[in-house]
Amino acid sequence: MGGVNRVSRTKSGPVGANLFAVRSHNTALVLDLLRGAGAAGISRLELAERTGLTPQAVSKITARLREAGFAAEAGRRASTGGKPRTVLRLVPEAGHAVGAHLDRDELRAVLVDLDGAVVGERRAALDLGGGSRAVLGVVANEVSGLVGEALGGRDGSAGPGGPSGGLAGAGSLLGVGVALPGPLDHARGVLHRVTGFPEWDGFPLRDALAERLGVPVVVDKDTNAAALGLSVGVCGGAGAGRAEGGGRSFAYLHLGTGLGAGLVIGGEVHRGARTGAGEFGHQVVQLDGPACECGNRGCVEVLCLEAVTRGEVREAARVLGVGAGNLVGLLDIDLVLLGGRTVAGAPEVFVAGVAEVLAARARREGAAGESVPVRVVGGERVVAEGAAQLLLAPVFGRAAG
Hints:
CATH superfamily of the largest domain: ATPase, nucleotide binding domain
Order of helices and strands: EEHEHHEEEEEHEEEHEHEEEHHEHHEH
Number of strands: 17
Strand content: 15-25%
CATH class of the largest domain: Alpha Beta
Strand order of the largest sheet: 8-7-6-9-12
Structural class: alpha/beta
CATH topology of the largest domain: Nucleotidyltransferase, domain 5
Shape: globular
């Protein structure tokens, strides 16, 4: 179950949710089927048939899940013979995760339940260049406040507490997922030279936040987090995940205060050997172009954002399309998803501009009827919701990376 199971301990006992019941691969399979069944529930026999596990194994797993509060009875269902079967359902409120999106000028944090439904949200101004102490203070305060508002008094506790303002009292909290611009080391939770903010180079953000909050923390690039959420179908509006990208290969292009890409190949987020995949905004498309904060000239990011600043949104969309065309040609992906606050300002223009470039490319290659579709991912919470999935996806047997 990845880092989700490595729940740290303090003098007051375990920190985070009691995860003994979700520690195995087989348990994750059962949990995923319970989640998929919704309120209608699913019987133990159906769980055995769909997982390939023995009925005895399923009974043991579901007993542990019920004891831990992750599953509950959802009534009885008539069977073809014998007594009616008891059906079980997931208990969404049994576990929660925080997803925090650290943008260059804003923090957005959401609290989601096991179904991925948002049950709380907070926003705050943030200066990513304001120094680690100030940034950590904003994140810790907003996350603690969010959890306190939404979970205070649940699980028999009084909510977040502790001498350092940690979250040890939030018994159903699995942890906090943090998403921010890269590059960074996802495995170690260490930042590299974040574009425009070189002072973060080498900062151990994961460990610093985990020590301050007292719960597990996972750190990833904003675009990877969004791509993960989309791949498991929990964010981005109707059907943007499993219906349009899950199990296939797609690129999520995020154009906000910067530009990056999250890549899903064969249903899994592709980060590369050093979490370097998806640095989409810094591909050079104009050798003598304007200087970019990364040190190169003529990057897609700087050309897009300068066009937006000039009010030439159609030109920005065309440049974005050129970059998307390079990505499609390199990876032969099935779908391009667009998101971010800049795209949200003129979604139709960006979809039309990118689609036009991709269609022209397909015509040149003799595949006019096979142009890669382009969609907009709705909502401003796509990155934050995806960040929460850094904690939740492994619980359901879906790799977070």
